[in-house]
Amino acid sequence: AIPLRPPAWRWIGLVHFWYWLPLSKFLFFVMGAWDLLRSKVVDRTEFVHRIRGWKSEGLSVVFTNGCFDLLHRGHVEYLSHAADLGDVLVVALNTDRSVGQLKGPTRPVQDQDARALVLAALGMVSLVTLFDEETPEALVAEALPQVLVKGADYRPEEIAGASAVLAAGGKVCTIPLTPGFSTTSILDRMG
Questions:
Q1: Please, which residues have CB within 8 angstroms of residue 182's CB and are 6 or more apart in sequence?
Q2: What is the mean pLDDT of residues 114-124?
Q3: What is residue 91's DSSP assignment?
Q4: What is the per-residue burial (b if ≥16 Cβ within 10 Å, else e) of 81-101?
Q5: DSSP letters of 141-157?
Q6: Would the pLDDT of 161 be above 50?
Q7: pLDDT digit string, tens, across residues 138-148
Q8: What percent of the chain has pLDDT over 90?
């Protein structure tokens, strides 16, 4: 497990923030909130392209993945802590088909488009893409983020793509889960 405290401000992160702040306001004015939100959900090719661009700018990219079926406090805390580990947080989201394979025939509750938009609406999430495989190992190997993150219910060596990230000099981290919050437990309480 890693300490859950924000990293010290990096000059590049601060410069990036102040550089993009006026641009984001301009884009919001020109594009509108809905278009700006939808621009954060991209296909796999664009996802990898943007990650490589951020890395070439010297930004630290944090990568995580999951189903994120019914967004809850545990997800928000997890994503917040993940975002603190770098400059840019990107999320690979399981498609409906892969969620069904992992969680069973009654899942997901929300379709992949709805789940992707909800994630994109979170301020700490910079980019979202879908993946249809059982794990995002190939996507991680292609994107090679500097930081790969999963919940502490995984051991670092079990995390898909960990070997590729470590071989490239990156870090693999786990974040403690928020007790009492999981989509499965919420669905069980709902009956």
A1: 72, 74
A2: 94
A3: E
A4: bbbbbbbbbbbbbbbbebbee
A5: HHH--SEEEEETTS-GG
A6: yes
A7: 999 999 999 99
A8: 61
Distance of CA 98 to the CA centre of its chain: 17
Q: Which two tokens stand for residue 14?
A: 């601060």
Which residue bears the tokens 């069973």?
104
Reported as type and span, the H/E element at residue 31 is helix 11-31
How far is residue 19 from each of residues 12, 13, 24, 84, 130, measured CA to CA in Å?
10, 10, 9, 19, 29
User: 12-16, 92-96, 110-114, 187-191: lowest mean pLDDT where?
Assistant: 12-16
Q: Return the residue matching tokens 């090679």.
A: 144
**Contact indicator for 160, 137 with CB cutoff of 8 Å:** yes
Measure CA of the first residue to CA of the last residue in the chain; give whole Å. 33
CA distances from 50 to 89, 120, 145 (A): 12, 15, 11
Two tokens, residue 11? 């000059």
